[in-house]
Amino acid sequence: MRCTGPGLPGAVRPGGGRTVTGPGLLQFDPILVPKPWGGTRLASLDKQPAPRQVPGTRYGESWEVADLPRGALSAAERGRTRVAAGPQRGKTLRRLIAEQGAGLLGSASPTPAGDFPLLFKLLDTAEHLSIQVHPDETWTARNPRWLPKTESWYVLDAEPGAAIFKGFRSGVGIGDVRAAAGTPALAGLLRRIPVRRGEFHHLPSGTVHALGAGVTVAEVQTPSDTTFRLYDWTDEYDRPPRPLQIRRALDTLRSVSPAGLSRGPMSDDGSRMLVETPNYWLREHRETDRPIVLQSAPELRILAVAQGRAHVTADDGSSVELEAGGVVVASAEVATSTRVSARGISTLVEVGLC
Protein backbone atom coordinates (compact mmCIF):
# COMPACT_ATOMS: atom_id res chain seq x y z
CA MET A 1 0.00 0.00 0.00
CA ARG A 2 1.57 3.27 -1.08
CA CYS A 3 -0.56 5.42 1.17
CA THR A 4 -2.63 5.01 4.30
CA GLY A 5 -3.63 7.11 7.33
CA PRO A 6 -4.09 8.11 11.03
CA GLY A 7 -5.58 6.93 14.24
CA LEU A 8 -7.14 7.94 17.49
CA PRO A 9 -8.72 6.89 20.77
CA GLY A 10 -12.36 7.36 21.51
CA ALA A 11 -15.71 5.66 21.86
CA VAL A 12 -18.80 4.83 19.92
CA ARG A 13 -22.42 5.98 19.96
CA PRO A 14 -25.56 3.87 19.67
CA GLY A 15 -26.39 5.02 16.12
CA GLY A 16 -25.94 2.11 13.70
CA GLY A 17 -25.65 -0.68 16.25
CA ARG A 18 -25.05 -2.02 19.77
CA THR A 19 -22.11 -0.28 21.39
CA VAL A 20 -19.38 -1.12 23.89
CA THR A 21 -17.31 1.94 24.80
CA GLY A 22 -13.53 1.87 24.49
CA PRO A 23 -10.66 4.19 23.61
CA GLY A 24 -9.79 2.74 20.19
CA LEU A 25 -12.97 2.94 18.13
CA LEU A 26 -14.76 6.25 17.55
CA GLN A 27 -18.18 7.21 16.27
CA PHE A 28 -19.29 10.78 15.72
CA ASP A 29 -22.64 12.53 15.91
CA PRO A 30 -23.44 13.24 12.26
CA ILE A 31 -24.28 16.68 10.90
CA LEU A 32 -27.43 16.63 8.76
CA VAL A 33 -27.41 19.23 5.99
CA PRO A 34 -30.68 20.46 4.43
CA LYS A 35 -30.74 20.38 0.62
CA PRO A 36 -33.55 21.22 -1.87
CA TRP A 37 -32.85 17.90 -3.62
CA GLY A 38 -32.76 15.80 -0.44
CA GLY A 39 -34.54 12.44 -0.20
CA THR A 40 -35.92 10.33 2.66
CA ARG A 41 -33.46 7.40 3.00
CA LEU A 42 -31.11 8.98 5.52
CA ALA A 43 -33.67 8.42 8.26
CA SER A 44 -33.78 4.71 7.39
CA LEU A 45 -30.00 4.66 7.90
CA ASP A 46 -30.51 6.00 11.44
CA LYS A 47 -29.54 9.57 10.57
CA GLN A 48 -31.97 11.65 12.58
CA PRO A 49 -32.10 15.47 12.68
CA ALA A 50 -31.79 17.41 15.91
CA PRO A 51 -35.13 18.06 17.69
CA ARG A 52 -34.92 21.79 16.96
CA GLN A 53 -34.97 21.28 13.20
CA VAL A 54 -38.03 22.48 11.28
CA PRO A 55 -40.44 19.59 10.49
CA GLY A 56 -40.52 18.69 6.82
CA THR A 57 -36.97 19.83 6.16
CA ARG A 58 -35.37 17.83 3.34
CA TYR A 59 -31.95 16.51 4.30
CA GLY A 60 -29.62 15.57 1.48
CA GLU A 61 -26.36 14.98 3.34
CA SER A 62 -25.20 13.37 6.58
CA TRP A 63 -21.64 14.40 7.43
CA GLU A 64 -20.26 11.41 9.34
CA VAL A 65 -16.58 12.35 9.77
CA ALA A 66 -16.04 16.06 9.21
CA ASP A 67 -13.63 18.77 10.31
CA LEU A 68 -14.30 21.85 8.18
CA PRO A 69 -13.80 25.34 9.64
CA ARG A 70 -16.70 27.78 9.38
CA GLY A 71 -14.96 29.80 6.68
CA ALA A 72 -14.95 26.75 4.39
CA LEU A 73 -18.70 26.14 4.56
CA SER A 74 -21.24 27.06 1.90
CA ALA A 75 -24.37 25.13 2.96
CA ALA A 76 -23.89 23.50 6.38
CA GLU A 77 -24.33 25.48 9.58
CA ARG A 78 -21.32 23.77 11.14
CA GLY A 79 -18.58 21.61 9.78
CA ARG A 80 -17.01 19.74 12.70
CA THR A 81 -18.48 16.45 13.90
CA ARG A 82 -17.98 15.62 17.57
CA VAL A 83 -17.23 12.35 19.31
CA ALA A 84 -20.56 10.91 20.45
CA ALA A 85 -19.59 9.02 23.62
CA GLY A 86 -16.77 7.83 25.83
CA PRO A 87 -13.67 9.55 27.21
CA GLN A 88 -13.34 11.88 24.19
CA ARG A 89 -17.03 12.78 24.03
CA GLY A 90 -17.71 16.21 22.57
CA LYS A 91 -14.26 16.65 21.05
CA THR A 92 -13.77 17.54 17.42
CA LEU A 93 -11.19 15.90 15.21
CA ARG A 94 -9.23 19.15 15.16
CA ARG A 95 -8.95 19.07 18.95
CA LEU A 96 -7.97 15.40 18.94
CA ILE A 97 -5.28 16.12 16.34
CA ALA A 98 -3.94 18.98 18.47
CA GLU A 99 -3.85 16.77 21.57
CA GLN A 100 -2.52 13.56 20.02
CA GLY A 101 -0.78 14.52 16.77
CA ALA A 102 0.69 11.46 15.09
CA GLY A 103 -0.91 9.32 17.76
CA LEU A 104 -4.17 10.10 16.02
CA LEU A 105 -3.12 10.46 12.39
CA GLY A 106 -0.27 7.99 12.13
CA SER A 107 1.86 8.82 9.10
CA ALA A 108 -0.71 11.14 7.51
CA SER A 109 -0.68 14.91 8.03
CA PRO A 110 -3.50 17.27 8.94
CA THR A 111 -4.37 20.14 6.63
CA PRO A 112 -2.11 23.21 6.82
CA ALA A 113 -4.67 24.70 9.22
CA GLY A 114 -4.51 21.64 11.50
CA ASP A 115 -7.80 20.02 10.45
CA PHE A 116 -8.61 16.40 9.59
CA PRO A 117 -7.67 15.90 5.92
CA LEU A 118 -10.84 14.11 4.78
CA LEU A 119 -14.62 14.49 4.76
CA PHE A 120 -16.83 11.38 4.80
CA LYS A 121 -20.56 11.76 4.28
CA LEU A 122 -23.73 10.07 3.04
CA LEU A 123 -25.93 11.64 0.36
CA ASP A 124 -29.52 10.81 -0.61
CA THR A 125 -31.35 12.37 -3.54
CA ALA A 126 -35.00 12.85 -4.49
CA GLU A 127 -33.97 15.20 -7.33
CA HIS A 128 -30.86 15.73 -9.43
CA LEU A 129 -28.03 17.68 -7.83
CA SER A 130 -26.72 20.70 -9.69
CA ILE A 131 -24.37 20.18 -12.62
CA GLN A 132 -21.13 21.26 -10.99
CA VAL A 133 -17.35 21.32 -10.94
CA HIS A 134 -14.83 21.44 -8.07
CA PRO A 135 -11.47 23.19 -8.47
CA ASP A 136 -8.06 21.52 -8.32
CA GLU A 137 -4.90 22.51 -6.43
CA THR A 138 -3.47 24.50 -9.34
CA TRP A 139 -6.56 26.68 -9.60
CA THR A 140 -6.91 27.21 -5.84
CA ALA A 141 -3.23 28.13 -5.57
CA ARG A 142 -4.10 31.13 -7.76
CA ASN A 143 -7.39 31.68 -5.93
CA PRO A 144 -6.68 30.96 -2.24
CA ARG A 145 -10.20 31.92 -1.14
CA TRP A 146 -11.35 28.50 -2.41
CA LEU A 147 -10.38 24.94 -1.50
CA PRO A 148 -9.68 22.07 -3.94
CA LYS A 149 -11.93 19.04 -3.96
CA THR A 150 -11.64 15.49 -5.29
CA GLU A 151 -14.37 13.02 -4.39
CA SER A 152 -15.47 9.41 -4.81
CA TRP A 153 -18.95 7.85 -4.70
CA TYR A 154 -19.86 4.36 -3.51
CA VAL A 155 -23.48 3.59 -4.41
CA LEU A 156 -25.42 2.34 -1.37
CA ASP A 157 -28.79 2.22 -3.13
CA ALA A 158 -30.36 3.25 -6.42
CA GLU A 159 -33.93 3.25 -7.66
CA PRO A 160 -34.67 1.52 -10.97
CA GLY A 161 -33.60 3.81 -13.81
CA ALA A 162 -31.47 6.05 -11.57
CA ALA A 163 -28.31 7.54 -13.04
CA ILE A 164 -25.42 9.90 -12.44
CA PHE A 165 -23.93 12.45 -14.82
CA LYS A 166 -20.15 12.40 -15.17
CA GLY A 167 -18.01 13.98 -17.86
CA PHE A 168 -19.09 15.16 -21.31
CA ARG A 169 -20.18 13.03 -24.24
CA SER A 170 -17.68 12.32 -26.97
CA GLY A 171 -17.42 15.18 -29.44
CA VAL A 172 -18.53 17.92 -27.01
CA GLY A 173 -16.22 20.94 -27.13
CA ILE A 174 -15.67 23.84 -24.75
CA GLY A 175 -17.63 26.11 -27.09
CA ASP A 176 -20.66 23.83 -26.74
CA VAL A 177 -20.33 23.96 -22.96
CA ARG A 178 -20.07 27.76 -22.88
CA ALA A 179 -23.17 28.10 -25.05
CA ALA A 180 -25.25 25.70 -22.94
CA ALA A 181 -24.07 26.74 -19.46
CA GLY A 182 -26.90 27.96 -17.27
CA THR A 183 -29.58 26.34 -19.46
CA PRO A 184 -31.35 22.95 -19.59
CA ALA A 185 -29.39 22.18 -22.78
CA LEU A 186 -26.29 21.55 -20.68
CA ALA A 187 -27.65 18.22 -19.41
CA GLY A 188 -27.75 16.88 -22.97
CA LEU A 189 -23.98 17.36 -23.26
CA LEU A 190 -23.15 15.13 -20.26
CA ARG A 191 -22.61 11.39 -20.09
CA ARG A 192 -25.61 9.84 -18.34
CA ILE A 193 -24.52 6.66 -16.54
CA PRO A 194 -27.17 4.26 -15.12
CA VAL A 195 -26.17 3.15 -11.62
CA ARG A 196 -26.76 0.14 -9.37
CA ARG A 197 -26.06 -0.67 -5.75
CA GLY A 198 -22.39 -1.54 -5.20
CA GLU A 199 -20.98 0.57 -8.04
CA PHE A 200 -18.09 2.96 -7.55
CA HIS A 201 -17.37 6.24 -9.34
CA HIS A 202 -14.31 8.45 -8.89
CA LEU A 203 -14.53 12.20 -9.58
CA PRO A 204 -11.17 13.96 -9.75
CA SER A 205 -11.25 17.73 -9.27
CA GLY A 206 -12.14 19.47 -12.52
CA THR A 207 -14.65 16.77 -13.55
CA VAL A 208 -18.13 18.03 -14.44
CA HIS A 209 -20.75 15.90 -12.67
CA ALA A 210 -24.17 15.63 -11.03
CA LEU A 211 -25.60 12.98 -8.73
CA GLY A 212 -28.95 11.94 -10.14
CA ALA A 213 -32.31 11.51 -8.43
CA GLY A 214 -33.05 8.30 -6.56
CA VAL A 215 -29.48 7.54 -5.53
CA THR A 216 -27.88 7.10 -2.09
CA VAL A 217 -24.09 7.19 -1.92
CA ALA A 218 -21.25 7.20 0.56
CA GLU A 219 -18.92 9.99 -0.46
CA VAL A 220 -15.24 10.32 0.40
CA GLN A 221 -13.67 13.66 -0.43
CA THR A 222 -10.90 16.05 0.35
CA PRO A 223 -12.01 18.54 3.04
CA SER A 224 -13.76 21.24 1.00
CA ASP A 225 -17.28 22.54 0.52
CA THR A 226 -16.36 24.47 -2.66
CA THR A 227 -18.83 23.88 -5.49
CA PHE A 228 -19.19 25.84 -8.73
CA ARG A 229 -22.59 25.29 -10.39
CA LEU A 230 -23.20 25.33 -14.14
CA TYR A 231 -26.93 24.49 -13.98
CA ASP A 232 -29.36 23.68 -11.16
CA TRP A 233 -32.38 21.98 -12.82
CA THR A 234 -34.69 24.85 -11.85
CA ASP A 235 -36.86 24.38 -14.95
CA GLU A 236 -37.23 20.62 -14.40
CA TYR A 237 -38.06 20.74 -10.68
CA ASP A 238 -39.51 24.24 -10.32
CA ARG A 239 -37.30 24.77 -7.29
CA PRO A 240 -36.06 28.20 -6.20
CA PRO A 241 -32.98 29.30 -8.15
CA ARG A 242 -29.61 29.18 -6.43
CA PRO A 243 -26.59 31.15 -7.57
CA LEU A 244 -24.59 29.76 -10.48
CA GLN A 245 -20.83 30.23 -10.76
CA ILE A 246 -20.50 29.72 -14.50
CA ARG A 247 -17.28 31.67 -15.04
CA ARG A 248 -15.45 29.91 -12.24
CA ALA A 249 -16.86 26.51 -13.25
CA LEU A 250 -15.69 26.92 -16.84
CA ASP A 251 -12.31 28.08 -15.60
CA THR A 252 -11.87 24.99 -13.42
CA LEU A 253 -12.97 22.36 -15.98
CA ARG A 254 -10.05 20.01 -16.43
CA SER A 255 -11.20 18.88 -19.88
CA VAL A 256 -14.29 18.16 -21.93
CA SER A 257 -13.31 14.54 -22.54
CA PRO A 258 -15.30 11.70 -20.90
CA ALA A 259 -14.39 11.07 -17.26
CA GLY A 260 -12.93 7.71 -16.27
CA LEU A 261 -12.68 5.25 -13.39
CA SER A 262 -15.97 3.59 -12.67
CA ARG A 263 -16.31 0.07 -11.25
CA GLY A 264 -19.29 -2.28 -11.29
CA PRO A 265 -20.62 -4.18 -8.25
CA MET A 266 -18.77 -7.15 -6.78
CA SER A 267 -20.56 -10.43 -7.45
CA ASP A 268 -18.56 -12.74 -5.15
CA ASP A 269 -16.95 -12.59 -1.71
CA GLY A 270 -13.52 -11.00 -1.57
CA SER A 271 -11.76 -7.64 -1.46
CA ARG A 272 -10.64 -5.12 -4.06
CA MET A 273 -8.97 -1.74 -4.21
CA LEU A 274 -11.36 0.85 -5.62
CA VAL A 275 -9.06 3.85 -5.94
CA GLU A 276 -5.78 5.32 -4.69
CA THR A 277 -5.36 9.09 -4.81
CA PRO A 278 -2.72 11.46 -3.39
CA ASN A 279 -5.10 12.12 -0.47
CA TYR A 280 -6.96 8.89 0.28
CA TRP A 281 -7.66 5.32 -0.80
CA LEU A 282 -10.78 3.14 -0.77
CA ARG A 283 -11.02 -0.62 -0.49
CA GLU A 284 -14.20 -2.71 -0.72
CA HIS A 285 -14.82 -5.98 1.15
CA ARG A 286 -17.67 -8.45 0.62
CA GLU A 287 -17.96 -11.51 2.89
CA THR A 288 -20.64 -13.90 4.12
CA ASP A 289 -20.47 -14.79 7.84
CA ARG A 290 -16.67 -14.57 7.79
CA PRO A 291 -13.92 -12.22 9.00
CA ILE A 292 -13.13 -9.23 6.80
CA VAL A 293 -9.38 -8.71 6.44
CA LEU A 294 -8.40 -5.03 6.65
CA GLN A 295 -5.14 -3.48 5.53
CA SER A 296 -2.49 -4.34 8.13
CA ALA A 297 -0.73 -0.96 8.39
CA PRO A 298 -0.93 0.96 11.71
CA GLU A 299 -2.94 3.83 10.23
CA LEU A 300 -6.31 5.45 10.92
CA ARG A 301 -9.19 3.81 9.10
CA ILE A 302 -12.78 4.85 8.39
CA LEU A 303 -15.02 1.78 8.17
CA ALA A 304 -18.54 2.03 6.73
CA VAL A 305 -21.07 -0.76 6.28
CA ALA A 306 -22.68 -0.50 2.85
CA GLN A 307 -24.84 -3.62 3.09
CA GLY A 308 -25.74 -6.09 5.83
CA ARG A 309 -24.17 -5.96 9.30
CA ALA A 310 -20.67 -6.18 10.70
CA HIS A 311 -19.14 -6.58 14.15
CA VAL A 312 -16.03 -4.45 14.76
CA THR A 313 -13.71 -5.07 17.73
CA ALA A 314 -10.27 -3.90 18.88
CA ASP A 315 -7.78 -5.32 21.37
CA ASP A 316 -8.49 -2.53 23.85
CA GLY A 317 -11.93 -4.06 24.42
CA SER A 318 -13.95 -1.58 22.37
CA SER A 319 -16.51 -2.96 19.94
CA VAL A 320 -19.51 -1.93 17.89
CA GLU A 321 -22.17 -3.74 15.88
CA LEU A 322 -22.76 -1.76 12.69
CA GLU A 323 -25.71 -1.92 10.34
CA ALA A 324 -26.00 -0.44 6.85
CA GLY A 325 -25.02 3.24 7.02
CA GLY A 326 -23.03 2.73 10.22
CA VAL A 327 -19.59 4.35 10.35
CA VAL A 328 -16.71 3.92 12.80
CA VAL A 329 -13.17 5.32 12.92
CA ALA A 330 -10.38 2.99 14.05
CA SER A 331 -7.38 4.84 15.43
CA ALA A 332 -3.79 4.20 14.43
CA GLU A 333 -3.30 2.78 17.94
CA VAL A 334 -5.73 -0.06 17.32
CA ALA A 335 -5.71 -0.29 13.52
CA THR A 336 -3.62 -3.46 13.37
CA SER A 337 -5.75 -5.15 16.05
CA THR A 338 -9.13 -4.08 14.65
CA ARG A 339 -11.15 -7.07 13.52
CA VAL A 340 -14.34 -7.06 11.47
CA SER A 341 -16.74 -9.98 11.12
CA ALA A 342 -19.52 -10.05 8.53
CA ARG A 343 -23.03 -10.92 9.73
CA GLY A 344 -24.64 -12.66 6.76
CA ILE A 345 -23.81 -11.15 3.37
CA SER A 346 -22.07 -7.90 4.25
CA THR A 347 -20.21 -5.22 2.32
CA LEU A 348 -17.73 -2.91 4.04
CA VAL A 349 -15.97 0.15 2.63
CA GLU A 350 -12.54 0.79 4.14
CA VAL A 351 -11.03 4.27 3.77
CA GLY A 352 -7.45 5.25 4.52
CA LEU A 353 -5.45 8.48 4.41
CA CYS A 354 -2.38 9.24 2.35
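The record above closes out task 2.4. Task 2.5 opens with a second protein, given below.
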Amino acid sequence: MNPNALDRLITLFSKLPGIGKKSAGRIVYHILDSSPVLAAGLAKELQGLHQAIRRCSVCGGFTEADPCSVCSDPSRDHSIICVIECAQDMRIIEDAREFPGVYHVLGGLIAPLEGISPANLTIDKLIERLRDGTIKELILALNPTVEGDTTALYLQKTLKDFHVDISRLASGMPVGGNIEYIDKLTLSRSFRGRVKV
Protein backbone atom coordinates (compact mmCIF):
# COMPACT_ATOMS: atom_id res chain seq x y z
CA MET A 1 0.00 0.00 0.00
CA ASN A 2 1.41 3.35 -1.07
CA PRO A 3 1.52 6.05 1.63
CA ASN A 4 -0.68 9.08 0.97
CA ALA A 5 0.48 12.72 1.13
CA LEU A 6 -0.33 12.90 4.84
CA ASP A 7 1.78 9.81 5.66
CA ARG A 8 4.66 11.02 3.50
CA LEU A 9 4.72 14.40 5.25
CA ILE A 10 4.60 12.80 8.71
CA THR A 11 7.52 10.56 7.71
CA LEU A 12 9.50 13.59 6.51
CA PHE A 13 8.86 15.60 9.70
CA SER A 14 9.77 12.60 11.88
CA LYS A 15 13.26 12.61 10.31
CA LEU A 16 13.97 15.96 11.98
CA PRO A 17 15.92 15.81 15.28
CA GLY A 18 13.75 15.63 18.39
CA ILE A 19 10.55 14.94 16.45
CA GLY A 20 9.07 11.47 16.65
CA LYS A 21 6.11 10.08 14.74
CA LYS A 22 3.54 11.47 17.21
CA SER A 23 5.01 14.99 17.19
CA ALA A 24 5.31 14.86 13.42
CA GLY A 25 1.66 13.88 13.21
CA ARG A 26 0.62 16.78 15.45
CA ILE A 27 2.59 19.22 13.29
CA VAL A 28 1.10 17.93 10.05
CA TYR A 29 -2.46 17.94 11.40
CA HIS A 30 -1.94 21.48 12.71
CA ILE A 31 -0.82 22.58 9.25
CA LEU A 32 -3.90 20.92 7.73
CA ASP A 33 -6.22 22.59 10.25
CA SER A 34 -4.61 25.99 9.61
CA SER A 35 -5.02 28.32 6.68
CA PRO A 36 -3.42 27.15 3.40
CA VAL A 37 -1.38 30.37 3.64
CA LEU A 38 0.66 28.78 6.48
CA ALA A 39 1.50 25.71 4.37
CA ALA A 40 2.37 27.89 1.37
CA GLY A 41 4.62 30.12 3.51
CA LEU A 42 6.38 27.11 5.02
CA ALA A 43 6.90 25.52 1.61
CA LYS A 44 8.26 28.76 0.12
CA GLU A 45 10.71 29.34 2.98
CA LEU A 46 11.91 25.72 2.95
CA GLN A 47 12.32 25.77 -0.82
CA GLY A 48 14.58 28.83 -0.74
CA LEU A 49 16.46 27.99 2.46
CA HIS A 50 19.66 26.66 0.89
CA GLN A 51 19.81 29.53 -1.61
CA ALA A 52 19.23 32.25 1.01
CA ILE A 53 21.43 30.95 3.84
CA ARG A 54 25.14 30.22 3.57
CA ARG A 55 28.10 29.70 5.89
CA CYS A 56 29.94 32.79 7.13
CA SER A 57 33.42 32.76 5.60
CA VAL A 58 34.89 33.92 8.93
CA CYS A 59 33.18 31.97 11.73
CA GLY A 60 31.30 29.22 9.88
CA GLY A 61 27.88 30.19 11.26
CA PHE A 62 24.77 30.43 9.08
CA THR A 63 24.04 33.81 7.54
CA GLU A 64 22.32 35.62 4.69
CA ALA A 65 25.12 38.19 4.38
CA ASP A 66 28.81 37.27 4.38
CA PRO A 67 30.45 37.93 6.77
CA CYS A 68 27.69 37.42 9.33
CA SER A 69 26.29 40.18 11.55
CA VAL A 70 28.46 39.08 14.51
CA CYS A 71 31.75 38.94 12.57
CA SER A 72 31.08 42.29 10.89
CA ASP A 73 30.03 44.07 14.12
CA PRO A 74 32.79 46.53 15.17
CA SER A 75 31.35 46.76 18.69
CA ARG A 76 32.13 43.07 19.35
CA ASP A 77 35.42 42.09 21.02
CA HIS A 78 37.23 40.40 18.13
CA SER A 79 40.09 39.34 20.43
CA ILE A 80 37.90 36.68 22.11
CA ILE A 81 36.66 33.68 20.15
CA CYS A 82 34.03 31.31 21.49
CA VAL A 83 34.64 27.89 19.92
CA ILE A 84 31.39 25.96 19.43
CA GLU A 85 30.36 22.64 17.96
CA CYS A 86 27.62 23.80 15.59
CA ALA A 87 26.00 26.97 14.25
CA GLN A 88 22.90 26.42 16.39
CA ASP A 89 25.00 26.86 19.55
CA MET A 90 25.84 30.40 18.40
CA ARG A 91 22.19 31.43 18.40
CA ILE A 92 21.63 29.92 21.85
CA ILE A 93 24.64 31.76 23.31
CA GLU A 94 23.58 34.99 21.63
CA ASP A 95 20.13 34.70 23.22
CA ALA A 96 21.80 34.72 26.66
CA ARG A 97 23.37 38.13 25.83
CA GLU A 98 26.40 37.30 27.96
CA PHE A 99 29.20 36.90 25.41
CA PRO A 100 30.71 40.04 23.80
CA GLY A 101 33.18 38.35 21.42
CA VAL A 102 33.00 36.42 18.16
CA TYR A 103 32.62 32.74 17.30
CA HIS A 104 34.23 29.81 15.54
CA VAL A 105 32.05 26.86 14.49
CA LEU A 106 33.97 23.55 14.48
CA GLY A 107 31.29 21.69 12.55
CA GLY A 108 31.22 18.78 14.99
CA LEU A 109 33.27 17.09 17.69
CA ILE A 110 36.05 14.51 17.49
CA ALA A 111 34.33 11.12 17.62
CA PRO A 112 36.57 8.29 16.33
CA LEU A 113 33.83 5.67 16.68
CA GLU A 114 31.67 7.73 14.29
CA GLY A 115 34.59 8.34 11.94
CA ILE A 116 34.93 12.03 12.84
CA SER A 117 38.59 13.02 13.14
CA PRO A 118 40.19 16.46 13.64
CA ALA A 119 40.58 16.65 9.85
CA ASN A 120 36.78 16.68 9.51
CA LEU A 121 36.50 19.81 11.67
CA THR A 122 37.45 23.44 10.96
CA ILE A 123 40.48 23.35 13.26
CA ASP A 124 42.85 24.46 10.46
CA LYS A 125 40.68 27.52 9.88
CA LEU A 126 40.79 28.29 13.63
CA ILE A 127 44.61 28.09 13.52
CA GLU A 128 44.54 30.53 10.58
CA ARG A 129 42.53 32.98 12.68
CA LEU A 130 45.07 32.74 15.50
CA ARG A 131 48.09 33.38 13.27
CA ASP A 132 47.66 37.16 13.04
CA GLY A 133 48.23 37.48 16.81
CA THR A 134 45.14 39.58 17.61
CA ILE A 135 43.28 36.80 19.46
CA LYS A 136 43.80 36.92 23.24
CA GLU A 137 41.38 34.24 24.44
CA LEU A 138 39.61 31.14 23.18
CA ILE A 139 36.57 29.99 25.12
CA LEU A 140 35.80 26.34 24.44
CA ALA A 141 32.01 26.18 24.72
CA LEU A 142 31.79 22.49 23.95
CA ASN A 143 29.28 20.11 25.46
CA PRO A 144 30.62 18.32 28.57
CA THR A 145 30.54 14.89 26.95
CA VAL A 146 33.30 12.41 26.08
CA GLU A 147 33.45 13.87 22.55
CA GLY A 148 33.43 17.45 23.85
CA ASP A 149 36.22 16.70 26.34
CA THR A 150 38.26 14.87 23.68
CA THR A 151 37.92 17.82 21.30
CA ALA A 152 38.82 20.33 24.04
CA LEU A 153 41.92 18.32 24.98
CA TYR A 154 42.96 18.06 21.35
CA LEU A 155 42.56 21.82 20.86
CA GLN A 156 44.57 22.55 24.03
CA LYS A 157 47.47 20.41 22.76
CA THR A 158 47.27 21.67 19.17
CA LEU A 159 47.12 25.36 20.14
CA LYS A 160 49.65 25.31 23.02
CA ASP A 161 52.30 27.22 21.01
CA PHE A 162 49.99 30.19 20.39
CA HIS A 163 50.08 33.02 22.94
CA VAL A 164 46.38 32.80 23.72
CA ASP A 165 44.47 32.02 26.92
CA ILE A 166 42.28 28.96 26.56
CA SER A 167 39.30 28.50 28.88
CA ARG A 168 36.26 26.25 29.08
CA LEU A 169 32.78 27.07 30.25
CA ALA A 170 32.41 26.54 34.00
CA SER A 171 30.69 23.56 35.48
CA GLY A 172 27.34 25.33 35.54
CA MET A 173 26.69 23.10 32.54
CA PRO A 174 25.78 19.56 33.64
CA VAL A 175 27.99 16.67 32.57
CA GLY A 176 26.38 14.92 29.63
CA GLY A 177 24.24 18.01 28.98
CA ASN A 178 23.76 19.83 25.72
CA ILE A 179 24.02 23.61 25.18
CA GLU A 180 20.72 23.48 23.26
CA TYR A 181 18.78 22.54 26.41
CA ILE A 182 20.50 24.76 28.99
CA ASP A 183 18.59 27.70 30.45
CA LYS A 184 19.93 31.26 30.07
CA LEU A 185 20.89 31.66 33.73
CA THR A 186 22.98 28.47 33.78
CA LEU A 187 24.64 29.48 30.51
CA SER A 188 25.33 32.96 31.89
CA ARG A 189 26.96 31.49 35.03
CA SER A 190 29.01 29.13 32.88
CA PHE A 191 30.48 32.04 30.93
CA ARG A 192 31.23 34.07 34.07
CA GLY A 193 32.80 31.12 35.88
CA ARG A 194 34.90 29.78 33.00
CA VAL A 195 38.30 28.41 33.96
CA LYS A 196 41.66 28.36 32.18
CA VAL A 197 42.73 24.99 30.82
